[in-house]
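Exercise (ungraded).
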Amino acid sequence: MVETARYRILPHTADGKFQAYGRTAEEAFGNAALALSSLMWDWSSVEPRIRRRIETSGRDREQLLVKFLGEIVYLFDARQFLLGRVEELRILPRPGGFGLEAVLAGETLAPGREIHGGVKAVTYHDLRIEERDGVTVQVVVDM
Amino acid sequence: MELRRIDENSWEIPAEGPMRVPAVVYASARLLEDIRRDQTLAQARNVACLPGLVRRSYVMPDAHQGYGFPIGGVAAFDPDEGIISPGGVGYDINCGVRLLRTDFTEEEVEGKRRELLAEIFKEVPAGVGKGGVTRLSRAVLKDILRRGAEWAVENGYGRAEDLERTEERGRMKDADVEDVSARALERGIPQLGTLGAGNHFLEIQKVREIYDPAAARAFGLTAPGQVMVMVHCGSRGLGHQVATDFIETMENAFGVAGLPDRELVNAPFRSTQGQRYYRAMCAAVNYAFANRQMIAHWVRDVFARVLGGAGGMDQVYDVCHNVAKVEEHEVDGRSRRLVVHRKGATRSFGPGRPEVPAAFRGVGQPVIIPGSMGTASFLLAGTAEAEALSFASTAHGAGRVMSRHEALRRFRGEKIRDDLARRGIELKSTSWKGVAEEAAEAYKDVEEVVRVSNALGLGRVVARLLPIGVMKG
């Protein structure tokens, strides 16, 4: 079982479910990105060789989280990019919702690395963002 | 939740509260036990609340919880009053199954089984992150999205007659690439011609039993021991992105207030957003048809090389498991055009339907129901009864009962390989962890699913197929 202070993988019949924690929403979102990556590869062994600056937005925090995690799924499929670390993540309130900026650090998929799962999409199913002694987010992904 | 038993294998959730119509569940008492364990029934009830739903919200025998709509759900909407929903199709648009017959017998391939599987494993890119064979240009990809399996055949992948034996002849004509996002295209480019991971697989199988000799003959099955090949995969990241994009688009346009579940987001079928999703979904369906067409071609190549011939390797059929289509159905004695969503369900058109290829028009369309890894798969025939029962639909597979997480805790991929080998099934995969997640014990009993489908008349069982070689992504 993958269990760290950053996140916890939870049982779910068909797919992948996790909770991620942080003192702030930024930290919880960053840990959610690592939890998502852990369903596909061992992020802790990925070196921060490439840095990608990303930006996204959402009409509420839930949509912002779904779209932020969607970036990781997209970058893996389209660019074979493996996330190893989230740097400089910032959530910015904006008229009509939120913006998010982050730097994603990682490697390009190379032969010999095991990819043990494929995430198709990030869903709104059972999605939760709770603030109580820090921030907890819960996400279900389609695998 | 209150369930009223209609007969041996049919149950009704009566319309109450915001439900516009009742929901109907097709399951034996045993399958219903599994179905009741998750949110499947609540999801079927939510679907019954959506505008323009015609007749009933239906649940197939293999149903389990999905996103918004249950997997194993069938819902038909009036095109003028009703909606279209990405959640009613699923993220893996046109996840489906293709079945090839061969002239080979089990004995003839026995000594070459390992080599066949090893060669297929080399030819067909498998798991996640495995790029396709060709780096496509955007222009070519767009052509594929317009023309589906037709493009593949014209470019040397397979035979013209394969198209006759594919749902929609391998091409949804309403596809429009202008509605497919740049991101979806980018995800689609490296993945064309790949199997993908998860429950997707490619199997060399043998016919174990034939229950309906006339239908079996029409489908190209000869006798027990005949070798078959089954390919189960979908539209890969391209389809997943189309679903993701339009969930956002529809939410931003119409909001989700009043929906019991954000994943039920939808748009009126006639709205701009509804039509754009429909056309983008058709494009993703075409991508999946081309994908399976290419994979089937490589499999034939391998058989020809290893066994010295692939002449008898005709396609039995290719079916969609996740799709929304505009179809004619009879409602209250008159024919109506409906937007039929099948999510984890197979079309089951009976004899006489014009969409059924001429060769099968006397027996009904082939319905292909894959089992889980290492278990039996089934070939059924569509029925006339299914029209009134489920808008001509039946089950699509086994359906999970155990989480991947729990399966990983309980099973070891290497041990599963050894156990399968003892039962005469060769297994190859890119990931042992992936194999453990797909252990047969994590799935419902496909035999019971098919038994119920047959008893109800949703699909008539024709033959039972057993794997002899499994390639898992």
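Further reading is listed at the end of the chapter. For now, observe: Residues 45 and 84 of chain A are 7 Å apart (CA to CA). The domain at 7-142 of chain A is CATH 3.55.10.10 (Archease, Possible Chaperone; Chain: A; domain 1).
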